[in-house]
Amino acid sequence: MIEHQVRTHKSAEDFPLEEHLAYKVAQVAADPVAVDDEVADMIINRIIDNAAVAVASVTRRPVTSARTMAEDHPVTEGGASVFGIDGTYSAEWAALANGTAVRELDFHDTFLAAEYSHPGDNIPPLLAVAQHKGLGGKELIRAVATGYEIQVNLVKGICLHEYKIDHVAHLGPSVAAGLGTLLELDTETIYQAVGQALHTTTATRQSRKGLISSWKAYAPAFAGKMAIEAVDRTMRGEGAPAPIWEGEDGFIAWMLHSPERTYTVPLPAPGEAKRAILDTYTKEHSAEYQSQAPIDLAIRMKQTLADKGLDTADIESIVLHTSHHTHYVIGTGANDPQKMDPQASRETLDHSIMYIFAVALQDGGWHHVDSYLPERAARPDTVELWHKISTVEDPEWTRRYHSHDPNEKAFGAKAVITFNDGTVVEDEMAVANAHPLGARPFERDNYIAKFRALAEGQVDPAEQDRFLAAAQNLRELTDLSELNVRLNEAVLAQAPNTPEGLF
Fold first, then answer.
1. Of 115, 95, 97, which Cα lies nearest the Cα of 179?
2. pLDDT value at 212 more than 80
3. What are the start-end ranges of the E strands in 63-190?
């Protein structure tokens, strides 16, 4: 890996194009390096994972709205599949629909470092364009490897949330880079597309703050759509603002810290394999990633309390000692009263570690639907327990969160439960059970089991078998429409009616 120093440059400075971060990203995308077998295997896992969570979200209103938007843009030549239905549709609209379905339940893969990310968000737009261009599995694998590589390394090097910029600002450039690899574009064209994609996908973090709405699911899908459009424009010879990251009025100078800040972004050297996907991890539970280990911890502590004859009704307080990120994003450090509101949206509840820990501790489990039902959130004993939970930042958890050593890097917490009689029960968990270093790391069989579980009653068994066979044969697949999962018509009929839009 090469560590690139990235800072603002005044317009009068001599700053050759080849030194721009966007150009270096483009060079990585244009590098025809082979994809390692274990990387290709993990890409297959994540395609299965994306399909699993999309199956589970298909009848939710935001996903239904996105799907009907795509249905209003059918094509007769080329085009891409829209998840759950037949037909071919304009690739950018298919990417929006499929990306929304994948993100809606907050249930697919994650990478956390200086910034947050869900790198599986790269897959829907890359797949849509691959389908539109009639490309095969080998090309898609190379493109996905690039998308993950660029997003993960931007996440390692540049923190966005500190300056209230949403993490999809790293996704637009990564999708543009992945499309450059997919289409075998030249470095100059990819460079321009990366710049356009960053410029058009920069937004504030309000989408994940306070009253969290369905835009949380749309935001990454929209970034993928914008990246497709950026590539389309730059292939036609149009350019981007430059230097997009380092310009005097550019991204670093005004969206992030200041013109004085220098960031270090690692990128593969020429000829170096793209392996960043292997640093990422998926979710066993449908909730924000930093709650994965606390959910497993709560489930374990429920058994501990039962063994000791202790009742959650007798709890005086629960304090979760955790990292800066967890405390300030999904904990009481966010100072969001909505995170304690029984009437809050599902999107808000899955960003409330207080709610999540309370329900997991009471139920001894977690379910992507039942754990968020309005009647579940409003249950009086749950509300009482929920409001007794707080978070505090622990410097050691923050250090481990940012550690570059994979054996130390952790996203967990220590829970201190105090009972009315003074009894204290403590336990901690560093990584979720499904994490590569966890008690039950996810492997191919786990991804398949997750798909089967979420597809049950949604997708006919024969269709499940067909999709899984196609996905696992991705290296040899020539018709990428086989990666679309058709849902049971009776299930689709349960989708809500949505108002008409412009088209």
1. 95
2. no
3. none
